[in-house]
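Morning. Coffee machine broken again, so started the prediction first thing and wrote up yesterday's gels while waiting. Chain of 142 residues, entered below exactly as on the submission form.
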Amino acid sequence: MNVVVDTCVWSLALRRSNSQLSRQEQLLRAELAELISEGRVQIIGPIRQELLSGIREEVYYRRVRDYLRAFDDEALTIEDFEQAASATNKCRAAGVTGSPFDFLICAAAIRHHWSVFTTDQDFTAYARHLSLRLHTPRPAKL
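Came back before lunch.
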């Protein structure tokens, strides 16, 4: 199954050095590397935008941008935006709120039957109310 990788996981892998990572974060980075090597990683435009936003140094911005260009964006459709709105309404009715970007990720993942690789606990709450699968990293190889 393909996996849409959320901004928080990409950021951990691309915007922080190994010395700044905890053991758990290193395991997440290793899982992302494994998914990339298997050709299972998916990305959508809002994740790319979120990752590149706020990078102050132009050289570093270009380096991250160029690295991400190896991954094609999966095009979002009208149905994705409608599904994101529906998911927002469904979760809100259950007392769960989230960002429009989060619900676009959910909608794309549901439509494509992808799991979501994230450290954002909001997705655990969304999954209780949506037919959303979360990616569980495999046992450590480190």
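The helical segments are 7-14, 23-37, 45-52, 58-68, 78-93, 100-112, 122-127. Going to sketch it on the whiteboard this afternoon.
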